[in-house]
Amino acid sequence: MTLEEFLSYRRPSYKNILHHPSVDLEWNIVEAYDLIEHVLHILPSIEKNKRYAKLNCFLEKKESYLALHKELGELMDKYNFRKPVGKYDGLKDMDEAYGDQTVLYYWDHLEHADMLVARDNAWLGILLDDEY
């Protein structure tokens, strides 16, 4: 299954939603792109900071995240979706904002990214449930 097909998927429980499936595709692509952008900004903090040693297992997957980011960027361009502008500019010590919860915060985002890489439909439900 291609990434585009995967992100076009509408869960059976959402079949009666009134908006067109293309809206789901846009939301899914933008959510996925935002998630991977966030993960790519988390990884350097993990690399440089020894206190995140238990997150090092995610560093091995960096190439997968980069490949997915490239593929998502192509989909964003194909459909002319707006990319976030400067969202992460100036976040030098982004981990400090989360204090003791940083490892859990990072772990959640990295785990969601792994679900996306594995084409596991659970990634979207988790993100949407967290937001709403």
Taken together, the total number of domains comes to: 1
Rounded to the nearest angstrom, the distance between the terminal CA atoms is 28 Å
Mean pLDDT across residues: 80
* SSE string: HHHHH
Strand content: under 5%
Biggest sheet layout: none
Number of helices: 5
Shape: elongated
The number of distinct β-strands equals 0
Helix content: 55-70%
Please state the CA-atom Rg, rounded to the nearest Å. Answer: 15 Å
Please identify the structural class as seen in this structure: mainly alpha
Low-confidence segments: 128-132
Tell me what the structure shows:
The chain has 132 residues and is mostly helical. The chain has one domain. Helix content is 58%, strand content 0%. The chain is built from five helices and no strands. The protein has helices at 3-8, 21-48, 62-78, 102-117, 122-131. Helix 2 runs antiparallel to helix 3 (62-78) and helix 2 (21-48) crosses helix 4. It is elongated.
Write a compact overview of the structure shown.
By secondary structure, this protein is mainly α. It is 58% helix and 0% strand.
Primary descriptors:
single chain, mainly alpha, disordered C terminus, 5 helices
Topology:
Layout: H1 3-8, H2 21-48, H3 62-78, H4 102-117, H5 122-131
Helix pairs in contact: 2-3, 2-4, 4-5
